[in-house]
Every structure is written in C-alpha cells, then in structure tokens.
Structure of Reverse transcriptase domain-containing protein:
Amino acid sequence: MLVDATPGHDLLSFMDAYSGYNQILMHPDDQEKTAFVTERGTFCYKVMPFGLKNAGASYQRLVNKMFTKMLGTTMEVYIDDMLVKSLVAQQHIDHLRQSFDVLNKYGMKLNPTKCSFGISSGKFLGYLVTHRGVEASPDQIRSIESIESPRCIKDALQDFKTYLKSPPLLSKPKDNETLFVYLAVSDTAISAVLVREEENNQHPVYYVSKTLLDAETRYIRLEKLTLALVVAARKLRPYFQCHSIKVLTTYPLKNILHKPELSGRLTKWAVELSEHDISFHPRSAMKSQVLADFIADFTPCENLKAEKELVSLTDDTTIGK
C-alpha cells in the first residue's frame, strides 16, 4: 500500500536513517538483557542493537509517531526507508523542510550516501516508482533475461523474454474496485496474478509466486491451486481486505472449499479465505492467465534443496508445533 500511494508525484526524495536501530536508546532496566561476553569482559548495549526480535516493530512505532502528521500525504515511511513526495514540484522544498524539522527535533541522523533528493523516480521497497506509475525493478526482471531458450522455439521465446523484461507499469486499484485473480501451478511452484479491468483491458496490480516445499509438491492439483490463492491472500492482504476478489479459473475451487465434509489443510485454508469477499467464476479467456502460467513454470526451485536440508536437521518433536 505504501508503494501504491507513491506514483503520480512530480518530485520524490529518498532518505535512509544512519544505523537506524542504534539511534534508539535502550531503557536502563533492559540494557543488561543485551549483555554479551568477550575475553575483555562483559558488555551490554546502551542503544538498540540489530537482531532483537522486536527491533523492527519498535523502530516502526517510533517513526510513525515522529511523522504522524505527514504520513499518507507528503511522506511514506517503512522502518528506516523514508520517502518525501510532492504532487507539485514547487512544494517539495517545503515538504523537505517539514521532514528535516522533525528529524532535528528527535535528533535522528541520515546516511548521506543513501539519500537522493528532488528526483522524479527511484527505488522504494524494491519497486521503481515514477510519476507514471510503479514499474518492475531491473533487479526483479534480471532472472527473466537469464532464462535458457529451448532450441525448438528459440525465436518465439526470445521475443517473449524481450517483452517481459520491458518494465511494465503496475496499475493502482481504485477504491472499492473489484479485482481479479488468475492462479497457476507447476510441479515445483505456484503463482497468482492480481489484475484490474478498465475499458475491457486488464492491467496487472501484483504478481505472486512461491517455490513448493517437498511435501507440497505431492499435493493434488486442486490443493496446489487453493494454496496459490491462500499465498496470494496472505501476501496481498491489504488488497483482499479492501476489495472484492473474483477468482477466474476452470477448476471447481468453489465446490471444493464449500464442502461441509472438508478436513485437514483444506478446512484450514477455507476458514482463512472465508474472511475475504472472494467469489469464483469460470475463466472465459486466457488474458492474464498466460502470465500466471509463465511465472509458475519458471519460478526458480534452487531453494528446494536448502529447505529439504533444514527439515532433515530439525528435531522431529518440533515439526508439529
């Protein structure tokens, strides 16, 4: 949602706090809880160190309190990534001055090597935000460029790769607008594409994919499709909460999830999905389905081996907890 609120602004400034966590003082009563032993003695932190379980949440609460009057209008903040935005370029200096006043008030320091001021586009939370919209970051499309071409359809695939690596604009949904979801599965991965329709044309909102674990690769196809929808609902929760969702599929997911005799993981997933306004409709045309299929087929599966090793090293008594 922070990324969606950024496009359409004339000027942007990206700021990064200098060792952000270390700028928060530890409460004196809690300093001893950060103690560590060295050959020269026992020491503890007077400032919040990196690695504490709730450090990120504590830092987010701090910046939310600091910039509460600016958030959502002239500023967006996620942990130590700060963005000042102006719809009109002439107002950008004033908006920067307001943010600097807050930083000075709380004594927060910035890392000048990671700050960019008064630019029209830049990377924010992994996405390239511009005045026109949200584009895929070059880092995100690099894996597409490295896909090996089958010899029999080399030219066709090369053209498809060229099209896909051209950074697309991700569309921002309108309030209360119905969104559509396409699902796809392969032997090792699942994917979903969230799209919106405007003038009978579909525009991508987000892409989601996940490499399947060893046990998940043995799910039947309907279970994999349901898992793809669950993963999309978790990763894109703000969209599923604020919009009606139409799932376009040729599979009877509605009948499966609404069966009273469901048991096991399908019951768990059905309960989880029931909190959203989701309806299922037959897919009348391919449209964005080809993108979902492509993502599922070409999602890297190199993490599969590492995940297997992690499971094999885990005590059996902890797996079911």
About this structure: Residues 303-321 have pLDDT under 50 and may be disordered.
